[in-house]
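In line with agreed milestones, work has continued on tokenised descriptions of protein folds. One protein thus recorded appears below exactly as we store it:

>
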Amino acid sequence: MSRRCLRLNLRAGEMLPVDLGWRIEQGYVWLARCCPSGDPLTLGVWGPGELVIPALIGFSGLELRSLSAVVVEEEQPSSTQEREFLEGQLRQASILLLLSRVRPAESRLLHLLDWFGTRFGTMTSQGVMLRFGDRLLTHQQLADIAGMTRVTVTKALTHFRQSGVLATQAGGALLMRVSASELWDCP
């Protein structure tokens, strides 16, 4: 008898069980662990077509949360898929560690948006179009992922729009007009 796989349709902000492997069909998920201070520590962000296996990370207290409307299906990963997930997780962890050290916070947010653009954005003639499913991330979601306050994120986004680095497009998407090579100081 074959085992039925679980399929979930979630709204933004809902939690997924961390003891299962998930294939993301639609939407974006965020994996975090709360620090002793209560602030979330971002461990990864995944999008459509990607496999996330939180149990392989080996921490207790993990939270896998939907960043947008999400459709996921449980997947029993092969050993090859587990290895590929861990390799990708190592790359994400390295980038997130580098991002956590970027100062000032405004620059950290811009680097995070650039990384999101590289991973999930669409290149246009005017720059990189960034949206997460049917909307952009909230200022609070960006703050939690970047390790910042919501007020700092709001001020930074306002500054980026006023300076022309970002533009809001129809439907709430962001257009980043600055290339990655202009932002990153290190490889």
User: Anything to note?
Assistant: Residues 79-100 form the longest helix (22 residues).
